[in-house]
Amino acid sequence: MGTGSRSRAEIGVISGFVLRMLRESIPLPQTGLAEHLGIDLGTLQGWESGRRPLGNVRTMDLLQLRRTMALLGADGVLLGWLDAAMDAERILTAVLRPLGNPADHPLAGWVQSRETAHLVAWAVRGITPPALRARAARSRRGPAPAGPQLGSADRADFFTHLRRTAESADRAGERGLLLRRQSLYLASYDPAPDAEDWAEQALRTMRPALALRDYTPRWIEARTAATVAARQGDPAPLRDFVEALARDQHSELANLAYWGYWLGSMPPTQPDDGFLHRPDPAAWNALHLFQQLVGSLHDAPGTLDLYVHSLHTLLSLHPWLPLADPAAARHLRERTAELLDAAFPSPVSRRDLESVHYRLQQTN
Asked: Within 13 A of 21's CA, how many CA atoms are on the CB side?
C-alpha cells in the first residue's frame, strides 16, 4: 500500500524459524515435509532459512501449508503463531527498509498483539517469547540456532531506525499516535546506554496525559508513557496511573479491554484504539483473560502494579472466575501470599493484593 514503485527485500527469518519448529514438532526431516507438501526441498529450505519469506507465499498455498501441517500432527500452539510471525516480519521490514508514507507503516495501521511484539524482540534481542520457551528449548540433532537469526547489521540498526520512526510519527497524520506509541513500546527493548534518556525525551509529548484523571482519547498515551517508564526503571508514573484507574470506571474497563486484546482474549482485529473508547466486557473472554493475567504475573517485575490492579478489577467484575479455574486461582492465591510477605513498595498494590488474596480465600 502506498509505497510507490520501489521495492525492498522482505525479512522472513521469524516465520521460517517457527516453520522449522513446527516441522520438528511432527517430527519430520525437511525431505519428508517437502514430500508431504508437494514442493521441492530447496523451497522448504528457503522458507525455513528466511531467504524466501512465508509472507510472500500465495494465500491458498499458505492455507494448504497450515492444513497439511495440522493433519501431520504439528503443534497447534505453534500453528497459531505463524500469523504473528509474519506480522513481526512486516514490522521489521518496515523499520529497517522504510518506504513511502509513515501512515502506511504496519505500526500505524494495526494494533499489534503481544505475540507480535515478543517475536520482534526475539529476532532483535534474542529474548525468547515466554509462551515458546519450552518449545524452543527442545533438543535437536546437531548444531542449531536458538532463535530467529536476524543479520548482525540489521540487529544493530533496528533500534536506530525505530527511533526515527517514532520521531517522524507526526507525518502519519491521524495514525501518528498509534505509530508513535507502538514504536515507543518496542523501543523499550533497546539495550543501548542512552535508551532511557531517549525514551524520556520521546515520552514528553505523552506525559501530560498522565495528569488527566478521567477517561479521554488521550488515555492510551498515559498508559503507554507509564508502562514504558516502568520498563525503563521508573515505577512512579505507573503507580500514579493505577491510582487514577481506580477512580474512573471507563478507564478501568478500557484497561481490561486493552489487556484483553494484548493477551489474546479477544480477536486481534482492531485497526486503531477506538475500541477503548467503547469498552464492552462482552467483547473479551473473561476466563481466558484471568488465566493469562495470572500466568503472566511472574514475567512482570516492572509492571507488577498494573497486573495486580487489573486482576483486582477483573475479579470485582467477575467474582466467579476462581471457581471456573481452581488451578489458576490456587496459583494466584500462593503468588499473592508471597508478594504480601515481601517488602512490596507500592501502597496501592498492597491494597489490591490484600483484596485479591481475601477474595481467593473466600472461594477456596
From this structure: 26
Confidence at residue 143, expressed as pLDDT on a 0 to 100 scale: 65
Pair 23, 33: CB distance under 8 Å: yes
Residue 116 CB contacts under 8 Å (≥ 6 apart), including other chains: 84, 87, 88, 91
Give the integer Cα–Cα distance in Å for 352 and 105.
39
Burial letters for 35-50: b for 16+ Cβ neighbours within 10 Å, e otherwise? eebeeeeeebebbbeb
* Averaged pLDDT, 170-180: 92
Q: Interhelix angle for 195-202 vs 219-231, to 10°?
A: 170
Question: pLDDT confidence of 4, banded at 50, 70, 90?
Answer: very low
Cell triple for residue 260? 484483553
**Rounded Cα–Cα distance for residues 46 and 33 (Å):** 13
Greatest extent of the chain over all pairs of C-alpha atoms, in Å: 64
Task: Give the C-alpha separation, 264 to 81, whole Å.
Answer: 12
Mean pLDDT value of segment 174-203: 91
**Above 60 in pLDDT, residue 7?**
no
3-state per-residue secondary structure call for 190-244: CCCCCHHHHHHHHHHHCHHHHHCCCCCCCHHHHHHHHHHHHHCCCCHHHHHHHHH
**Residue scoring higher pLDDT (220 or 145):** 220
Which residue stretches of the chain are H helix? 13-25, 30-37, 41-49, 59-71, 76-79, 82-96, 106-109, 114-125, 133-136, 152-167, 176-187, 195-202, 219-231, 236-245, 249-262, 286-296, 304-317, 321-324, 326-341, 347-362
- In this prediction, residue 64 carries a pLDDT of 95
Look at the block and give the residue holding cell 503468588: 335
| Dist. CA 175–CA 99, nearest whole Å | 16
Entry pTM: 0.88
Mean pLDDT within 320-335: 95
